[in-house]
């Protein structure tokens, strides 16, 4: 029998649903290899968990293709994202934490926070629309405000964005990480040439080829 949406899930199941929501793109299943890499687990573990989540009605799982959230799964994922991102706003804006520390603390708080507490925190923060790195916060009725991430090449010169993710070879990934271009970090597009983009991250300028920039997905910060 399908479990009700309101039933509490284990931390690991919540993390799977939230990660699937974060990796989802319109009309496309999330490949299990992407899910395994994001969660730093084995493909066997991903397959086992996705089967369990499908049995509970939270995902649709198709071997060799990927996984989608059902309406129930999306509702639970958005609930967790709301808790997580509201805590990030509170920790950064009210307590002065840097985003990296706030993110780690929010990962713990999201699992022990009630909906009533979230409603009160949302009111206290005056209903923020986005977290400190520009990721949208689902509303109290759990309708997602999340827009699809776009390639860095779509960002206008002078605009800011937070890095969402990138799927690149290991050598390119090492280069991006060393340059501070990591998921959650803020970047600014300084200039655009025929063959490359110039961005600013952590007060440093970094030149990226257009081919590499196309592989970097971002969320624009208003």
| Helical segment count | 8
Q: Please name the CATH architecture of the domain at 150-221.
A: Roll
Q: According to CATH, what is the topology of the domain at 150-221?
A: SH3 type barrels
Q: Kindly provide the name of the CATH class of the domain at 150-221.
A: Mainly Beta
How many strands, which pairing sense, and closed or not: the largest β-sheet? 6 strands, antiparallel
Quote the beta fraction.
15-25%
Q: How would you describe the shape?
A: globular
Question: What is the CATH homology-level superfamily of the domain at 150-221?
Answer: Ferrous iron transport protein A (FeoA)
Mean pLDDT: 85
Overview of the molecule:
With 222 residues, this protein is an alpha+beta fold. Among the domains are: 11-73, Arc Repressor Mutant, subunit A; 150-221, SH3 type barrels (Roll), CATH 2.30.30.90. Helices cover 42% and strands 19% of the residues. The protein is built from 8 helices and 8 strands. The strands form 2 sheets. The protein has a 6-stranded antiparallel sheet with strand order 3-8-4-5-6-7. A hairpin with a 2-residue loop joins strand 6 (196-201) and strand 7 (204-209). The longest helix is centred in the middle third of the chain and has 24 residues, at 71-94. Mean pLDDT is 85; it is low at 1-8.
Offer a quick outline of the entry.
With 222 residues, the protein is α+β, with helices and mostly antiparallel strands.
Descriptive key words:
alpha+beta; globular; 8 helices; two-stranded antiparallel ribbon; SH3 type barrels; 222 residues; Arc Repressor Mutant, subunit A; single chain; 8 strands
């Amino acid at each position: 029998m399908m479990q009700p949406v309101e039933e509490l899930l284990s931390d690991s199941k919540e993390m799977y649903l939230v990660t699937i929501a974060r990796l989802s793109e319109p009309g496309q299943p999330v490949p299990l290899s992407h899910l395994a890499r994001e969660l730093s687990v084995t493909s066997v573990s991903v397959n086992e968990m996705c089967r369990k989540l499908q049995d509970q009605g939270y995902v649709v799982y198709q071997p060799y293709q990927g996984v989608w959230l059902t309406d129930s799964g999306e509702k639970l994922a958005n609930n967790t994202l709301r808790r997580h991102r509201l805590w990030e706003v509170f920790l950064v804006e009210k307590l002065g934490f840097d985003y990296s520390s706030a993110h780690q603390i929010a990962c713990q708080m999201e699992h022990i926070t009630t909906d009533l507490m979230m409603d009160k925190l949302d009111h206290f923060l005056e209903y923020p629309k986005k977290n400190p790195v520009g990721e949208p916060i689902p509303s109290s009725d759990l309708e997602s405000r999340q827009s699809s991430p776009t390639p860095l090449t779509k960002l206008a010169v002078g605009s800011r964005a937070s890095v969402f993710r990138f799927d690149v070879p290991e050598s390119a990934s090492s280069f991006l990480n060393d340059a501070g271009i990591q998921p959650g970090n803020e970047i600014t597009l300084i200039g655009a040439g025929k063959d490359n983009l110039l961005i600013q991250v952590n007060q440093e300028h970094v030149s990226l080829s257009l081919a590499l920039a196309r592989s970097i997905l971002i969320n624009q910060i208003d």
